[in-house]
What we know:
The complex is a heterodimer. By secondary structure, chain A is α+β, with helices and mostly antiparallel strands. Chain A has helices at about 30-40, 105-110, 130-140, 150, 155, 170-180, 190-195, 205-210, 215-235, 235-245, and strands at about 1-10, 15-25, 60-65, 65-70, 85-90, 95, 100. Chain A folds into 2 domains: about 1-100, Beta-grasp domain (Ubiquitin-like (UB roll), Roll), CATH 3.10.20; about 105-245, Orthogonal Bundle (Fumarate Reductase Iron-sulfur Protein, Chain B, domain 2). By secondary structure, chain B is mainly alpha-helical. Chain B has one domain (about 35-220, about 255-280). In chain B, strand 5 (about 190-195) and strand 6 form a beta hairpin. The longest helix of chain B is centred in the last third of the chain and has 24 residues, at about 260-280. Classes of the chains: A alpha+beta, B mainly alpha. At the A-B interface, strand 1, strand 2, helix 2, helix 5 and helix 8 of A face helix 4, helix 7 and helix 8 of B. The site of one FE2/S2 (inorganic) cluster has 9 residues of chain B, from helix 4, helix 5 and helix 7. One iron/sulfur cluster binds near residues 202, 203 and 217 of chain A.
Amino acid sequence: MSERHFRVWRGDSEGGEFVDYTIDVEPGMVVLDCIHRIQAQHAEDLACRWNCKAGKCGSCSMEINGKPKLSCMTRMNTFGPDETITIQPMKTFPVVRDLVSDVSFNYRQNARIRPLKPRPRGKDGEHRMYQEDVDRVQEFRKCIECFLCQDVCHVLRDQDAMERFTGPRFMIRLASLEMHPLDTDDRVPEIRDEFGSGLCNITRCCTEVCPEHIGITDNAIIPLKERVVDRYYDPLMWLMRKITGRK
Amino acid sequence: MATSMSPPAAAPDGTKPGGHPTRAFQTVRTDNWKLGPLLTVAGLGAFVLYSTWRAFSGVHYWVEPYLSPFYSPLIYANPQHWAGSPIAHAWFGEMPQALIDAWPSFLPFALSPAFFILVFPGSFRATCYYYRKAYYRSFFGTPPGCAVCPIGQKNYQGETRLLVIQNLHRYALYGALAFIGILYYDAFLALRRGGEWGIGVGTLVLFMNATLLAGYTFGCHSFRHLVGGRLDRFTNAVGAPGLAHRVWRGVSWLNARHMKFAWASLFWVGFTDFYILAVSRGWISDLNTWGEAMGGH
Ligand code: SF4
Ligand code: SF4
Ligand code: FES
Ligand code: FES
């Protein structure tokens, strides 16, 4: 057991401040355990969102020593023994109170995306697809909607471009539909024009923070950018389309 | 509910509710996040300085039978230059007098054979998705590190508007694919000197160079797209069944290591040139089966 120091941001959308807490920490504890202990011993009104404590519900996202992380998956033994640990809510979304932020921006983005529009069923009345064709899409299904990628993306976080860019989590959802072996919808124009694929400058912070290790930049965003190139920026492809009359 | 989702405004001390800083390079991170961008600046900076100097110098790029990759393919030779390559090696022979005359004399450097070709590998690396990330972060600070405040831009446009040019990467890729063949050809030529088969350390250096460049080029994101990424159903691809998926998987393997190949091939191409410079100058001698190296002087 050892004594550890924390600086936790307390406040609401009007403002607030860092408050220092000291608690005893045992081996095996994660940051979320420490927040619970702070609640139990010092500040029962400290607001924080959590649910599964297993890295699967995506509720406990916050910034720990400046890094967007799941607090239930951040072990205390990853910090130096004398390190003070700073805990903040996510920067990109408005603060509700203390460590809880209003992530409704993300739900609105989700609602903008048109659902799967599958091709007709086969003669036997089944939808058939091959595993190798859905592998890519299945990687994206691992997303737990923690929104850490949305939080760290500088386009949303710092560039004041939330109206123009949907963010990495929704780029992977768009990719999972655009690459889907059954989907018949043409999504390329809106990926560029409405969801803002060109605003991502592929600096990969989303990939670095994703707790599910989804290759957001390499496997979703860059492939989408390449499909946009096919459609709009490749003179050879354009000529081919003119000649063959195909899309 | 408000429909606009602009983040809350910053307090007078520059922090936002949540205690986050907002000014360029500020962060709450406590780790050494500056190391990555600094190494990138050092690595890319050193390469650009060295390659520019070597490209402009126009000498010591050839020591029989090795040709520096900065000068390959050799369009025109300039044998009148000290330790330039012999004319026989160049595609179109000696540098035409008209070109030499047309070169503005107020420039402090002569027309170097490297100028005809460096635009190809140069544009390929400059528009590479990996290097874009590297220099956006380390040279332009957008952002300098994850959760580190970027250098402020009034109206951030990302890769739209001016930088839409990055979308020409796949054209640079076509050029780069040809260069793999050219550099392997150079390496095979380096197995013969004065009509005699043999091998030298320089030959191995050239083969290594072509191989690392191939690893880098075949792991390119645009290549990955063209060989299969563009398909929604690999099973619909033309060609043998399963072929498109297998090729795409192989390219994806290289793609996952694209950053490592980017640095390894960048370092090695510089080293290859330096090796040839050093042998040509007589600073070192090339260990080979032919006996004493033929220096450039
Ligand atoms: S790679 Fe693109 S989406 Fe991901 S964090 Fe960077 S700018 Fe945002
Ligand atoms: S992509 Fe990763 S970081 Fe983003 S919301 Fe999903 S799980 Fe979280
Ligand atoms: S509490 Fe569910 S992910 Fe952390
Ligand atoms: S993405 Fe790096 S070479 Fe194409």
